[in-house]
Design goal:
The complex is a heterodimer of chains A (296) and B (134). With 296 residues, chain A is an alpha/beta fold. Chain A has 13 helices and 8 strands. Helices cover 44% and strands 10% of the residues of chain A. In chain A, helix 8 (171-178) links the parallel strand 5 (146-149) and strand 6 (182-183). Chain B is mainly alpha-helical and 134 residues long. Chain B has helices at residues 13-22, 34-38, 49-57, 68-71, 77-81, 88-103, 114-119, 122-132. Classes of the chains: A alpha/beta (296), B mainly alpha (134). Chains A and B meet through helix 1 and helix 10 of A and helix 1, helix 5, helix 6 and helix 8 of B. The structure holds iron/sulfur cluster (2 copies). One iron/sulfur cluster (SF4) binds next to helix 2 and helix 3 of chain B.
């Protein structure tokens, strides 16, 4: 299976390890992603007023390009790109006059028929590959790893765009259980981490991340598993901690570890693997933490 | 339905502008406080979302000088839960837009340090700029 791929800016700057891990696990599952030959920033946040059409230009240009490149579907790894592109797509389908108005200002560069489709990688894994196929590929079950899946906002809200039930999601739990991990959960899994407040109100992010990590630790978690590159940044860099911080993994990295892939190929360095090993002092994970050189 | 309670002899112009921009009818709000109860950032807001709506409805002065709508990140938890179907983040965005157009940029871009620019993910910077600059 081959699919067009829209990376977005952050995947190419501060979340390269998520991309590496995604490409590695997809290779194992027989799927190749073809990066769009030309793409631009999605705009990151969906504009919420009806009088700011210019802010729809960035995501609509991505969708128009996809069609011009002869594709119908594009996969993205970033929750914010996914949310923004999917909502612009919804706008294009429900209010095509708005796209025409924008297109008229840009010399036809935004000619978009609304027939594109934006897939989150988690859609692909859950709905096309299927958790059964993922389970079958597991070589090193994450038996002793206790994870707290964190969803945040953009995977779940608003209804109609989100991938799962906004109040009681199970997607990441099901995925982690298919890898053999133990899952613990709590009420803060679906609450915002503070997102871009990291820029000018970082204290609020630290407070939210701290509360969530505390809930995860109290439930016995040895790691947080999440999807969004902005959540990852906030949990990894703004996490308050007295001792060692709670390790933060992309779900792609967790899948890669369970597939027995080389941690280096998943963008996990020795320091992170040691932290994971400390979080799970059992032999299985100790072995995992010292795995070098690929499949077992 | 229209509501015509105006404090301070004001005209309700801000309420009408917010309703037009957000597409929300604020008189639908029955002040249950569900939005404020669930908001992860309520403690950092100088006026809670339900009260902000009340201030708009009653044409209270000083709404545009509030911090609350800059603190709101549009996580949409409250929109998900509002029993009256009010999309509070749209109301917040309308207030940000009006404030940006009347008072100028909120984010002091020049004060973001070089280290922060180096480390912050692009999605954080672009989102912050999109929400806090005109
Ligand atoms: S949840 Fe809805 S109805 Fe209740 S106070 Fe908030 S906006 Fe009003
Ligand atoms: S959308 Fe804004 S007001 Fe509503 S819960 Fe989130 S941060 Fe609070």
């Amino acid at each position: 299976m081959q699919l067009a791929y829209y990376p977005g800016c952050t995947i190419k700057v501060s979340a390269r390890e998520h991309e590496r891990a995604a490409l590695a696990i997809l290779r194992e599952l027989g799927i190749a992603l073809r990066e769009m030959p030309e793409w631009n920033c999605c705009g990151v946040v969906h504009t919420l007023t009806g009088e700011n059409l210019i802010r729809q230009m960035a995501p609509l240009r991505v969708l128009a390009r996809l069609r011009q490149q002869g594709e119908r579907e594009a996969v993205t790894l970033c929750d914010m790109c996914f949310n923004t592109l999917a909502r612009a797509n919804h706008l294009a389908r429900t209010q095509p006059d708005q796209v025409s108005a924008l297109n008229a200002t840009s010399g036809g560069g935004l000619d978009y028929d609304g027939a594109g489709e934006v897939l989150h990688l988690l859609h692909l894994l859950r709905d096309r590959v299927g958790l059964a196929a993922i389970r079958k590929r597991v070589r090193r079950p994450l038996r002793d790893l206790v994870v707290y899946p964190y969803y945040g906002c953009k995977l779940l809200r608003p209804t109609g765009i989100g991938l799962d039930d906004p109040e009681m999601p199970t997607l990441l739990r099901d995925l982690m259980e298919s890898l053999g991990a133990t899952v613990v959960e709590g009420s803060l899994q679906t609450q915002c981490c503070g997102a871009y407040l990291a820029v000018d109100r970082a204290g609020l992010v630290t407070e939210r991340v701290g509360a969530t990590v505390e809930q995860a630790r109290d439930a016995g978690a040895g790691a947080i598993v999440l999807s969004c590159p902005l959540c990852h940044f906030n949990f990894a860099t703004l996490q308050p901690h007295a001792g060692a911080p709670l390790p933060v993994l992309y779900y792609t990295q967790a899948i890669g570890l369970a597939f027995g892939l080389d941690p280096a190929e998943l963008g996990l360095d020795d320091r992170q693997m040691e932290a994971l090993g400390r979080a799970v002092p059992s032999q299985a994970l100790h072995d995992l933490a010292h795995a070098r050189g690929g499949s077992a | 339905m229209t509501i015509a309670i105006g404090a301070n002899g004001q005209s309700g112009a801000l309420l009408r502008r917010v309703e037009a921009l957000s597409g929300q009818r604020l008189a639908q709000c029955y002040q249950c406080g569900t939005c404020a109860a669930g908001c992860p950032f309520a403690t950092a807001m100088d006026v809670l979302p339900d009260r902000l709506i009340r201030h708009l409805l009653f044409d209270m002065p000083g709404v545009l000088e509030r911090e609350a709508f800059w603190v709101c990140v549009g996580c949409e938890l409250c929109a998900q839960r509002c029993p009256r179907g009010i999309d509070v983040p749209r109301v917040m965005e309308a207030l940000r837009l009006i404030a940006l157009r009347t008072r100028g940029d909120q984010l002091p871009v020049a004060q973001i340090t070089a280290v922060a620019l180096e480390n912050l993910p692009p999605i954080a910077l672009v989102a912050s700029l999109r929400r806090q600059t005109g």
